[in-house]
Structures are given as structure tokens and as C-alpha cells.
Amino acid sequence: MADFIRFFIPIYFILFFAVSFLGISIVVAQKIGKNPNVLPKDDSAYALIGWYFKLILAALFIYTMLLVWFPAPTEKAFKITVLETEFIQYAGVILMIFALIWVVMAQFQMKDSWRIGIDDQINTKLITTGLFRFSRNPVFLGMTVSLVGFFLTFPTVIAFFFSVIGCILMQIQIRLEEEHLLKQHGQIYLEYKMKVSRMLGLY
Q1: 2-195: what fold?
Q2: Cβ-based burial of 84 (10 A; exposed 0-12, middle 13-18, buried ≥19)
Q3: How far is the C-alpha of 203 from the C-alpha of 198, rounded, in Å?
Q4: Helix 2-17 and helix 45-69, axial crossing angle in degrees, nearest 10
């Protein structure tokens, strides 16, 4: 199991970002004629959140690659041994795979509305069908499940840190996007908000 995890985690995250960020962004850019990555690059608080998010992603990528380059010390560093069982690790792998499929499905259902950040220049269509019937933020939900699965698959304090910080940043981004959608779609978004939870279930 250890050898499998050593290669599965870095390959998974490379595939995750290649497909769900780079791949879908290229497809959408060709359709709308602009880069869907609209995170600001000024000195605003929102731009700072985007910068933190990119920093966490870069650090996560480096950490997972250490599993390939320096497996022994990386696997032993800050390990939470009580969670290191094959059942929990397999559950984590299943969650990660499910999360990737879920995220890609949600992104395709967004079609031309997919953005990385908040687009103030184009009024994007409000998507309420498909996975958006169950969650107002299925992409962020999938990313959250992916981080939880990562922690269960590779239970270390560092993986837990990445999961917690990543989830906090996503929750901030979600609220910023919800404010934007409310301004853009008004009553239609309010009605949708009353019917569908922010993430899943009662939340």
C-alpha cells in the first residue's frame, strides 16, 4: 500500500490540476475568447486570497512530489499513526477518485460560465441543473472532498494542515462569489439559494 500511495498521490494531483484547471480553462478560453482565470493581481484583499490559494497549491504540489523524490523521510514526518490503516487509506483513495470525477462533471456542466475567480466584465449564466441541483458549489465541494481524501490516504500533520487551510480559503472564496452572483442575478439567485445548500445537505 505504501508504494502505491507514494506514486498515486502525486500522479493524482498532477492529473487533477491538468484536467480540472488547465484543461477546462483552455476549452473555455477558446469558446469565450478570453482567459477564464480572472483572479485579480492588484493589492486588494481578494487578490491576497487568490495569492494564498496559489501558494498553498504550489506547496501541496512540492509536498506530494517529495513522496517520489524522498519517500522514506516524507512518509515518516509528522505521521498520525492512529489513522494509518489500510481501510482508512483505501477510503481516502476512493474519495479522491470520486472527487476528481465530481469536479470534472461540475465544470463541464458550467460550460462557458466556468471561471477561476470572479468575472466582473461578463455576465455569466447561473447554472442550476445537474450537480448544481444538490450543491451551489459542487466544484468547491469536490475539491474539499479531495483534500479530505488526501489526508485519509496520507495521514500526516502536514496533510491535515493543507486540508484545513485549503478548506478555509475555499469557504472565503465561496462567500465572495455568492455576493457577486447575488448582485448579478438578484431574485433568481435568492430563490436558488433558498432551495439548494451551499455545499451539500443542510450546509
Answers
A1: Four Helix Bundle (Hemerythrin (Met), subunit A) (1.20.120)
A2: middle
A3: 6
A4: 140
Torsion angle, CA of 143/148/153/154, rounded to 10 degrees? 100
> Cell 512530489 belongs to which residue?
65
Average pLDDT over residues 180-200: 93
Whole-prediction pTM value?
0.92
* pLDDT tens digits, one per residue of 28-47: 999 888 889 888 888 888 88
- Residue 115: count of CB within 10 angstroms of its CB: 20
Boundaries of every domain in the chain: 2-195
**CB 66, CB 9: distance < 8 Å:** no
Give the DSSP letter string of 43-96: SSHHHHHHHHHHHHHHHHHHHHHHHHHSHHHHHHTTB-GGG--HHHHHHHHHHH
Cell numbers placing 75: 512518509
Q: What is the DSSP string of 81-104?
A: GGG--HHHHHHHHHHHHHHHHHHH
Separate counts of helices (H) and strands (E) for the chain: 8, 0
